[in-house]
Amino acid sequence: MAAATGEQIHRMVQDYYGKELQSTEDLKTGACVTPAGPLPRAAREALERVHQEVVARYYGCGLVLPERLASCRVLDLGSGSGRDCYVLSQLVGEKGHVTGIDMTEGQVELAKKHIAYHMDKFGYQKPNVDFILGYVEKLGDAGLADESYDIVVSNCVINLCPDKGAVLREAYRVLKPGGEMYFSDVYASRRLSEAARAHGALWGECLAGALRWSELRSIARDVGFSPPRLVAASPIAVGHRELESVAGGCQFVSATVRLFKVPAGSRAGPGRVVYNGGVAGHERELVFDAGFTFKEGEAVEVDADTAAILRSSRFAEEFLIQDGGDAAAPPGCCRGRAKERICDPFQLVERLGAPGPGCCPAGACGPRGCC
Question: 275: part of which helix (H) or strand (E)?
């Protein structure tokens, strides 16, 4: 069986989310509703203010609410019913702005329907959120300009796109220098068969288009992003006999990842950083990714990539950054005890149940610093 074309995939996904699914109860697997862990208090309170019709049509595999959002311009790729956008709308505040883009007309109409309700609920004088019908691979066609956003988020959407490279290239283009792409998505343990990659329900359930972790690293590098930084990961149980059979025993995980658009001039050597506790809701410690947890006032030696990210991003004013840290420390893990910075989400899922002393030998890290 031949693999589906890009146009066929778009049509299958549009039909699945625009016609077949009316609520999360219609999903055949747990891939699109995988929990990301407990919500921070501010996010939990923000979610409680989102209209129930919007929440009922939400599909996602993680939490796309990065830290330090106040006054930021945020773009949500594949915004669906607008749930994440309306939560982000509250976290960026009235001086910030959130744009959602989605290719399914019914979802965009539902999101737009409740703009006035939410602005009144939030006490805003004018809307700080808008929704656009369009393809995430073609943000230029939707009128989104170069270097116009601080943060790009996406919740279980990239796996639904036939051209992942185009999605990341467009995200990179619209991000400001130092900007971040923070997203959750589904990853596969191996390449799926042609039959699986042509299966409509497997596409709609976020499985047929899942990348392998090595593919994400390669695409990110080619686009120009910093190496992927794994934030969290959890296993996905397909739980549907027919779909499990078509998938051929492939395993899946959902993972939250952050990529940064680091300006060339920000790259230097390793450094020593001290977190000042200035990020609201994370005053005592900032869990930056699976390799770094920064505690207030504590000096931490970081690799060159991490130093460049902190120096050039919206986190710069939250850290005292000194050049010349431990040059021997390998990238991205605490005190040089892990072999590599990029933690494979499958290793993370496998090892979280039995952490050992120091860092895991294969470089898999836990959600609160090294395992």
Answer: strand 271-275
Q: Is the pLDDT of residue 7 over 90?
A: no
Higher pLDDT among residues 172 and 63, named by residue: 172
Q: Are 8 and 202 in contact (CB under 8 A)?
A: no
Place of tokens 């990020």: 279
Give the confidence band of 12 by pLDDT, cuts at 50, 70, 90: low
Q: What is the pLDDT of residues 100-131, one digit of tens each?
A: 999 989 999 999 999 999 999 999 999 999 99
Q: Is 356 exposed, middle or buried (0-12, 13-18, 19+ CB in 10 A)?
A: exposed
6 backbone dihedrals φ, ψ, rounded to 5°: -60, -40
Q: Are 188 and 218 in contact (CB under 8 A)?
A: no
Query: Which residues lie below 8 Å from residue 257, measured CB to CB, with a gap of 6+?
Result: 182, 183, 184, 185, 216, 228, 229, 230, 231
Cα→Cα distances 254→13, 122, 319, Å = 19, 31, 30
Residue 116 has which token pair? Answer: 């006035």
Q: What are phi and psi of 250, to 5 degrees?
A: -65, 140
Q: What token pair was written down for 129?
A: 């959120």
The residue length of the chain stands at: 371
- Widest pairwise Cα distance in the chain: 58
Q: How confident is the model at residue 31 (pLDDT cuts 50, 70, 90)?
A: low
Q: Which of 330, 348, 350 has the alpha carbon at shortest distance from 340? A: 330
Q: What is the pLDDT of residues 320-354, one digit of tens each?
A: 999 875 544 444 433 333 334 547 888 888 776 54
Q: Which residue has the higher pLDDT, 297 or 202?
A: 297
- Cβ 340 vs Cβ 322: under 8 Å: no
Please state the pTM of the whole predicted model: 0.85
Task: Please name the helix (run of DSSP H) or strand (run of DSSP E) that holds residue 246, with its range, or none.
Answer: helix 241-247
- Count of beta carbons in the 10 Å neighbourhood of residue 317: 9
CA angle 173, 288, 293 (to 5 degrees): 160
- The Cβ of residue 49 has, within 10 Å, a number of other Cβ atoms equal to 14
